[in-house]
Design goal:
Blueprint: E1 8-13, H1 15-33, E2 40-45, H2 50-57, E3 65-74, E4 83-88, E5 98-106, H3 110-121, E6 126-134, E7 147-151, E8 157-158, E9 174-177, H4 179-182
Parallel strand pairs: 2-3, 2-5, 5-6, 6-7
Antiparallel strand pairs: 1-9, 3-4, 8-9
Length: about 180
């Protein structure tokens, strides 16, 4: 088997940078929710956000719960119409809970837009979004995350949860994949 590192063109966020991002966002979330009397529920969107979510949440010294969802959004690329398909749903009712959705990356914004509506329909007390990476120039709907680790350019990034064809998630950093890998 070949070493994956050779397929990476540039490292965008190394391990120290990722740890710093988790420290910063965890401190902000802790500050924002420390006085809340609601249940705090992290909704972790599979699969890409798993590494980020576990590193982030272990830095937050507040009682909280972890829930998982697997979703896909569909719809025409130039409109906000479309729907969300839920492949794996929450195991608990989020009615009256403070929900923080954790994503690895926001691209068009479509997934989180649909998810926002779904969680609001289920009666969450509040819904906020936390993303490791954001590609603002790719946005097709109006959506801003409440907590953003790093804004990145429109490049094909992998690692720390992000994949190409289900591989590269286990790289300990976020890097740009060499185009030769996906143009084969
Ligand atoms: C990615 C990412 C978000 C979504 C963002 O998931 O984790 O859920 O795409 O795209 P959007 O802003 O254009 O809606 P993906 O479908 O690649 O699933 P994965 O995390 O399992 O790889």
């Amino acid at each position: 088997m070949q070493n994956m590192h050779k397929d990476i063109e540039t490292i965008l966020a190394d391990e120290a940078t990722l740890a710093g991002i988790c420290d910063r966002l965890a401190a902000r979330i802790t500050e924002d929710y420390r006085d809340s009397d609601k249940d705090l529920v992290f909704v972790i969107i599979l699969k890409g956000s798993v590494y980020f979510a576990t590193d982030l949440i272990r830095r937050i010294p507040l009682p909280c719960e972890m829930e998982f969802m697997k979703v896909s959004s569909y719809g025409a690329s130039t409109t906000t119409s479309g729907f969300i398909q839920v492949h794996l749903d929450l195991k608990r009712d989020v009615h009256d809970a403070d929900v923080i959705v954790i994503e690895d990356i926001i691209d068009s914004g479509r997934t989180l837009e649909k998810l926002s509506n779904l969680l609001a329909d289920r009666g969450a007390h509040s819904v906020r979004f936390c993303t490791l990476l954001d590609k603002p120039e790719r946005r097709q709907v109006k959506l801003d995350a409440d907590y953003v680790g790093l804004n990145i350019p429109d490049a094909f990034v992998v690692g720390y949860g992000l994949d190409y064809d289900e591989k590269y998630r286990n790289l300990p950093y976020v890097g740009i994949l060499k185009p030769a890998v996906y143009r084969k």
